[in-house]
Design a protein that fits this description.
Oligomer: heterodimer
Helix content of chain A: 25-40%
Structural class of chain A: alpha+beta
CATH architecture of the largest domain in chain B: Roll
Number of domains of chain B: 3
Largest sheet of chain A: 5 strands, mixed
Radius of gyration of chain B: 25 Å
Number of helices of chain A: 13
Number of domains of chain A: 3
Radius of gyration of chain A: 23 Å
Strand order of the largest sheet of chain A: 5-6-1-7-8
Order of helices and strands of chain A: EHEEHHEHEEHEHEHHHHHEHEEHEE
Shape of chain B: elongated
Strand content of chain B: 35-45%
CATH superfamily of the largest domain in chain B: DNA Polymerase III, subunit A, domain 2
Distance between the termini of chain A: 54 Å
Chain lengths: 355, 375
């Protein structure tokens, strides 16, 4: 039986702003740009009460909460704090898998401090985080990643929730389907259409049914409905893509504007590719129109994309597939499908021609 | 100028050359067929600058002469909808107004000056080499190899078929660096040694028209262009420039393990078993021992798996090797013999597939790189 902890910082960006600007404590704070086209990157708990959510256009957020205070994001600071908490985790185990800047899985089955109780470790870690950063975190403790992740969400903020092996099934049975890790908005809607409202409903369906409905994900849903998740905590999660995107101050409406911005993105992408030492097989173009409708177009040309010339050539063909007569709010390019990261059971070898 | 032409005959000529025309052309004139009437002969041309195809019809009933470009799409679509009947083309060369007078009515379009149509690339006769082979031979050479050509923007030479002439034989080679095909004919030798790389598109066009031809093809080429002269068509195309990789060096000379197996049985087994392979890899595993080949596949994500056992003749050590099933299927599909020979050395080296019996004047060899099985 493994012991897995999921630690999730509470309203991370917003809490850091409240910490560094004490006058903001207890007030609704949004991190993000307040101007016309800005987007909320994070919201404090006070702001969430008004329905302010991350990824929401600032305009909408402001409409929901008149006295919302916007703070410009300070990513360097957040990154610094993130490093601090990750360092704390690593004092307990090397099996730390960061999920994002402010959350991580820890496998403490075997730990550096020989503490037998995962609950004790989680409590200690929470305290260490408060001492070091004056910020709070929520912890979930259980026997696998799925359960630990769901557990940390139970008593937020500053909470701690344990799902012991004996409580796994009763816990899952009552868990609303949208709380399942891996069930997003779309999947949740589909689950509801299938009359699956909680873990118990999910358990009623057999594997062929779930595979039919959800494809590959079906196997995952089948397993987690039974509390099974054998995915290991992997410290070095390979990044799956390298990308860059830009939201424009004014919508792009003309072909030359689009070309110029695309060139800029390519410049930026090639730098990031070089920094990450990545080559990929797939280039994806993202276009968000002024009405927030978004399309992506991708191409997999059959070779590794490594050079600027290739990017230019491919981006040019991709942009032609977008409707350029509509005002464009955002353009993005990303490279993915890196060597060896397909979920493949085998690798096709190539003929090694001399010269 | 005026001429009378059978609607179906005109359609069949235009359809054959229409495959040259791209859907989107940078040069608008290329959306047209070029009509050139002279001495009772109507010459029809379609081009995309890289490839040009020309065909001609002898007409009895003509008046005057001239060259005009006519829009291809509307012409083809209209012709397809006519029942067989004589069509009277009446073209005013001053205004480019074209009237097609049918049994029941009149269809009018406007043409463009034929002078705007790009000039044909020419083969430099001083540097040109010339080859004359049977239509069937060229057809086999293209059919056997075209499927193995690459789509590699970085290595354009791989996107074509290498045609290599020598006093010993005529060789066709194609490879996408996962598979390689070498097809040799000993009944077509030249007293010189030369080669050219025929791009995919013209190769595909030839593949399409050759079955309807009889007799010989004359191929003339220099280092940039080639002309294929068929009984009813002429194709001029730009060649892929550059050097083809030395393919013979990658063909293993000796492979210790040799399987002989019924081709169709193997092909059908792969068709069934591969449905159960991982969708990303398409991996099928071949486990061969004691005159038996076990063909298996699985997709762990969907908890499905399959295997079939086939009897074969096997000389060699027990071994297991993985291949991309669709590649293997394509290769088996392009071998004509009843039994195939598979020569293998080890799971990470190229496998060779050969027909069990070659016809007298030909030799074909297909090479396929295996997949390295993870786990």
């Amino acid at each position: 039986m493994r012991k897995i902890i999921h630690i999730d910082m509470d309203a991370f960006f917003a809490s850091i702003e409240q910490r560094d600007h004490p006058e903001l404590k207890g007030k609704p704070v949004a991190v993000g740009r307040s101007e016309e086209r800005g987007v909320v990157a994070a919201a404090s708990y006070e702001a969430r009460k008004f329905g302010v959510r991350s990824a929401m256009p600032s305009k909408t957020a402001r409409a929901r909460c008149r006295h919302l205070i916007f703070m410009p994001p300070r990513f360097e600071v957040y990154k610094q704090v993130s490093n601090q908490i990750m360092a704390i985790f690593r004092e307990y185990t090397d099996l730390v898998e960061p999920l994002s800047i402010d959350e991580a899985f820890l496998d403490v089955t075997v730990n550096k401090k020989d503490i037998p109780s995962a609950t004790l470790i989680a409590r200690e870690i929470k305290q260490r985080i408060v001492d070091t950063t004056q910020l709070t975190a929520s912890a979930g403790i259980s026997v696998n990643k799925f359960l630990a992740k769901v557990a940390s969400d139970q008593l937020k903020p500053d909470g701690m929730f344990v799902i012991t092996p004996g409580k796994v099934l009763p816990f899952i049975e009552q868990l609303p389907i949208e709380k399942f890790f891996g069930v997003g908005k779309k999947t949740a809607e589909k689950m509801h259409r299938l009359n699956i409202k909680n873990g118990k409903d999910l358990q009623q369906h057999d594997l062929p049914f779930l595979l039919h409905q959800f494809g590959k994900q079906g196997k995952y849903f089948y397993d987690i409905a039974r509390g099974i998740d054998n995915r290991p905590v992997t410290p070095f999660r390979e990044r799956k893509s390298v990308g860059i995107e830009n939201t424009f101050l004014a919508d792009l409406t003309t072909q030359p504007q689009i070309t110029t911005e695309l060139e800029r993105l390519i410049e930026g992408l090639i730098k990031r590719m070089q920094k990450a030492a990545k080559k990929g097989r797939t280039l994806t173009l993202k276009v968000k129109y002024s009405n927030f409708e978004q399309i992506t177009r991708s191409t997999t040309p059959g070779y590794f994309i490594t050079s600027k010339i290739q990017l230019e050539m491919l981006a040019e063909t991709l942009i032609k597939e977008a409707d350029l007569s509509r005002p464009i709010r955002l353009l993005g390019l990303s490279l993915s499908n890196f060597p060896g990261d397909k979920p493949q059971d085998a690798i096709q070898l190539e003929i090694n021609f001399p010269g | 100028m005026k001429f009378v032409v059978s609607s179906t005959e005109l359609l069949s000529h235009l359809q054959a050359i229409s495959r040259v025309i791209n859907n989107k052309n940078t040069v608008p004139i290329l959306d047209n067929f070029l009509f050139d009437l002279k001495d009772h002969k109507l010459v029809l041309t379609a081009s995309d600058l890289e490839v040009t195809m020309i065909t001609s019809m002898d007409l009895e009933n003509t008046e005057g002469e001239g060259i005009i470009a006519l829009p291809s799409k509307i012409l083809l679509e209209t012709l397809k909808k006519f029942p067989e009947q004589p069509l009277n083309f009446d073209i005013d060369m001053e205004t480019m107004a074209v009237n097609i007078i049918t049994e029941k009515g009149k269809f009018s379009v406007v043409g463009q000056s034929g002078e705007d149509f790009p000039e044909l690339p020419e083969v430099d006769q001083d540097k040109a080499s010339r080859l004359q082979v049977g239509v069937d031979l060229l057809q086999s050479g293209i059919n056997k190899t075209l499927f193995a050509t690459a789509d590699d923007e970085l290595r354009p030479v791989m996107n074509g078929i290498l045609v290599e002439m020598s006093p010993d034989n005529l060789t066709f080679v194609a490879s996408d660096s996962h598979k390689l095909v070498r097809y040799q004919r000993f009944d077509a030798r030249t007293d010189f040694s030369a080669s050219f790389i025929l791009p995919k598109k013209p190769a595909g066009l030839l593949k399409n028209v050759l079955p309807k031809q009889e007799g010989d093809v004359v191929i003339e080429f220099d280092d940039r262009n080639s002309i294929f002269i068929l009984p009813n068509y002429k194709m001029v195309c730009r060649l892929v420039e550059g050097n083809y990789p030395s393919y013979n060096a990658v063909i293993p000379q000796v492979s210790p393990n040799k399987v002989i197996i019924d081709r169709v049985e193997f092909f059908n087994t792969l068709g069934r078993v591969s449905l159960f392979s991982n969708q990303a890899s398409n991996l099928v595993k071949l486990k061969i021992e004691n005159n038996e080949m076990n063909v298996s596949a699985q997709d762990i994500d969907f908890s499905i798996s399959a295997f079939e056992r086939l009897s074969c003749q096997y000389e060699g050590d027990e071994m297991e090797i993985g291949f991309k099933s669709n590649f293997l299927v394509e290769i088996l599909d392009n071998i004509d013999s009843g039994d195939v020979v598979m020569e293998l050395s080890d799971p990470s080296r190229a496998g060779i597939l050969l027909p069990f019996e070659n016809s007298e004047n030909e030799q074909e060899l297909m090479l396929l790189m295996p997949m390295m099985i993870n786990v």
